[in-house]
Amino acid sequence: MRPRDVVYAVTFLIVILVMWGIYTNPPYIHQRARVIQQHIFGAQRATVVTAAVPEISHPKCSLSKNCPIDHFAFQIKSGAATVVGPKICFDGNIVMSGVMNNVGPGLNLVLVNGENGKIEKFDYFNMYSGETKAILDFLKTIKPGMIVLVASFDDAATKMTDEIRNIFAGLGSSSIKDVKFRDSWVFAGGAGTEQKSPFEKLAANSQKTNIYGNWPEVVEIAGCFPRKI
């Protein structure tokens, strides 16, 4: 027999043996195929890296953009006549509002820790028929470094004494001397500063310009208040 014939014969024999092994033991072949498949595709899955989705930060207190990291977002709206209560939002949290049922006629005030943004206390004081001692006692608890947020509702001036006005002036108010009967007034200031606050708005009660009969328009301020360090 020639060498070429020997090679052909051996090759043919190997093919026959392989086919016989596949035919007589298919589960083994299938099992090996599954192992190989899991090994290949499992390794591919292990190498897939999931890209981290950046967290989207939305502006707080309905601002149009985020405040710097060393500032607090805030928004203050005065009340509308005697119908709609004021709203005070600070650092993304509504502290006082008519919906929360924690506002009242007169002055609505919030005291905030100027370092960490913690709400220290809040209350409202009737400035038409209430006692001035109550609001004076509240104002005298203000400590240096605190942020003070104020919103009027209905009338904020009838019981406002010179002492009360002077306290607000010391907090940075420029308009407090002009606040009169049923004016709309909002203000954000800081204790322990000699600078006048840029966050203040006043709408005078005038029959010529009033929006709600005997009451003026709603006034609003919003912005970023510097953190006290």
TrEMBL record:
Question: What UniProt keywords apply to this chain's record, in alphabetical order?
Answer: Disulfide bond, Lectin, Membrane, Secreted, Signal, Transmembrane, Transmembrane helix
Q: Where is the ILEI/PANDER domain?
A: 106-192
Transmembrane feature ranges: 6-24
InterPro entries in the record = FAM3 (IPR039220), ILEI/PANDER_dom (IPR039477), ILEI_FAM3C (IPR039475)
Give the GO molecular function terms. carbohydrate binding
A GO cellular component annotation here is: extracellular region
Cellular compartments annotated? Secreted
Major location category of this protein: secreted
Q: Name one Pfam family in it.
A: ILEI
Family as reported in the entry's similarity comment:
Belongs to the FAM3 family.
The record's listing under PANTHER family reads:
UNCHARACTERIZED FAM3
Q: What is this protein called?
A: FAM3 metabolism regulating signaling molecule D
Which species does the entry assign this protein to?
Oncorhynchus mykiss (Rainbow trout)
